[in-house]
């Protein structure tokens, strides 16, 4: 991440590093703006709030976790942002094949599969992202996430006194 953010910064792009407090000592040298957040979940919410698309580079378990969390939120109509997978040297080929198979076997709807955009070069990725038009699942468009926000913020009191 450091090399990519440095190159973007040198190229004149705005860079925002969103780092959970617990990982702050492991972040290394940073450029641009740095935002510390309490948890990994807060990190993903901040990334969602501060991005137009998600571009994924080769990575490990944490990368996969973030890809699928963002994808599931798109499927649930929480956002309409695409996920661009920079598929250098075919790194994501097997994952994309798995997604295609899951789509063919009706485990994921077409609308969920279509947010994953793959390209082998940055130039191709930019072209595909510019052409991307989100087409939500019709069932998901009926979900109203604002309804749950007020009830989830209510505090419930419980009597935890012990009677002997």
Brief rundown of the structure:
With 164 residues, this protein is an alpha/beta fold.
Write the layout of secondary structure elements.
Blueprint: H1 2-10, E1 16-20, E2 33-37, H2 40-49, E3 54-56, H3 61-75, E4 83-86, H4 93-104, H5 110-113, E5 116-119, H6 122-131, H7 146-152
Parallel strand pairs: 1-2, 3-4, 4-5
What are the main properties of this structure?
alpha/beta; three-stranded parallel sheet; two-stranded parallel sheet; 5 strands; 41% helix
Strand arrangement in the largest pleated sheet: 3-4-5
Morphology call = globular
**Helix content estimate:** 40-55%
Series of secondary-structure elements, N-terminal to C-terminal? HEEHEHEHHEHH
Largest sheet: 3 strands, parallel
Task: State the end-to-end distance.
Answer: 57 Å
Total count of strands: 5
Taking all Cα atoms into account, the compactness measure Rg is 19 Å
Structural class, from secondary structure content? Answer: alpha/beta
* Unreliable spans: 150-156
Q: Please, what is the average pLDDT? A: 84
Beta-strand fraction estimate: 5-15%
DSSP helix count? 7
Written account of the structure:
This protein is of the alpha/beta class. It is built from 7 helices and 5 strands. It has helices spanning 2-10, 40-49, 61-75, 93-104, 110-113, 122-131, 146-152, and strands at 16-20, 33-37, 54-56, 83-86, 116-119. The protein has a 3-stranded parallel β-sheet with strand order 3-4-5, with helices on both faces. It has a two-stranded parallel ribbon with strand order 1-2. α3 links the parallel β3 and β4. The longest helix has 15 residues, at 61-75. The radius of gyration is 19 Å and the shape is globular. Residues 150-156 have low confidence and may be disordered.
């Amino acid at each position: 991440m450091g090399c990519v953010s440095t190159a973007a910064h040198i190229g004149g792009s705005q860079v925002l590093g969103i780092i959970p407090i617990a990982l702050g000592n492991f972040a290394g040298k940073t450029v641009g703006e740095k935002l510390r957040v309490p948890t990994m979940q807060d990190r993903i919410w901040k990334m969602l709030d501060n991005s137009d698309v998600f571009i994924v580079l080769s990575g490990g378990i944490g990368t996969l976790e973030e890809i699928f969390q963002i994808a599931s939120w798109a499927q649930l109509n929480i956002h309409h942002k695409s996920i661009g997978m920079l598929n250098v040297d075919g790194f994501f080929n097997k994952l994309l094949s798995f997604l295609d198979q899951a789509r063919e076997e009706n485990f994921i709807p077409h609308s969920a599969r279509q947010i994953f955009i793959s390209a082998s070069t940055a130039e191709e990725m930019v072209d595909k992202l510019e052409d991307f038009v989100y087409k939500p699942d019709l069932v998901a468009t009926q979900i109203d996430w604002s309804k749950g926000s007020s009830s989830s913020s209510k505090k419930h009191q419980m009597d935890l006194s012990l009677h002997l």
